Amino acid sequence: MSPPVAKSAKSEVSFIVNGEATNVLAYPMERLLDVLRNHLGLTGAKEGCGEGECGSCSVLLDGMLVNSCLIPVAQADGASIVTIEGMSAHAMMKPLQEAFLECGGAQCGICTPGMILAAVHLLEKKPAPALADIREGLAGNLCRCTGYMQIFEAVSRATRPRVAQ
Amino acid sequence: MTARHIVGASAPRKEGWDKVTGAARYVDDMALPGMLYGATVRSTIARGKIKKITFGRGVDWNEYVVVSAKDIPGKNCIALILDDQPCLASDSVNHPEEPILLLAHADRHKLRKAVDAVAIEYEPLSPVHTIEESEGKSTIIWGTDNTFKSFLVQKGDVDAVWREAAHIVEGEYFTGAQEQLYIENNGVIAAYDAEHGVTVWGSLQCPYYVHKALMTLFALPEEKVRVVQMETGGAFGGKEEYPSMIAGHAALLAMKSGRPVKIIYDRMEDMVATTKRHPSRTRHRTAVSKDGKILGGEIAFTIDGGAYATLSSVVLSRGTIHAGGPYYWPNVRIRTKAVATNTPPHGAFRGFGAPQSLFAMERHMDRIAQVVGISPVEVRRRNFLKPGQTTTTEQTIRENIDLNHLLARALELSGYAAKKKRFAEENRTATRKKGIGIAVFLHGAGFTGSGERYLNSLVGVEATADGNVRVLVSSAEFGQGTNTVLCQIAAEALQLPYESVSIAQPDTTVVPNSGPTVASRTAMIVGKLVQSAAQGIRQTLVKTKLLSDNYSPEQFSAACKRYIAAHGALKSLARYEAPADVFWDDEKYRGEAYAAFAWAVYVAEVTVDFTTYSVTVDDFVALQEVGKVMNPVLATGQITGGVAQAIGFALYERVVWQNGRMLNNQMTNYIMPTSVDLPPIRVFFEELGNVHGAHGAKGIGELPMDGPAPAIVNAVEDATGVRFCSIPLLPEDLLEALRPESLERDVFPVARGSA
Question: Where are the beta strands (DSSP E) in A6-57?
Answer without folding.
Answer: 11-17, 20-26
